[in-house]
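Input/output pair, single chain:
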Amino acid sequence: MKLSDLKPGQEAIISEFDSNDIFLKLMEMGCVPGERIFLEQVAPLGDPISIKISGYSLSLRLNEAEHIKVELIN
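Output:
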């Protein structure tokens, strides 16, 4: 499943990225495989989303979140 498919309040673990173009940018922001993430909220029009990762909040565009594959925890 992709990060963009999560609903607010769901937790997941990053499994991999499906694009090498955005890989380095996401890694620099703390989105590394094996990291636990929590979807905090989605903007009223659906873009961007706010996630909690490594103890801080991060906003991502949906087109960035579509490149992050995750495994749902709950």
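The chain has one domain: 3-72. The longest strand covers residues 11-17.
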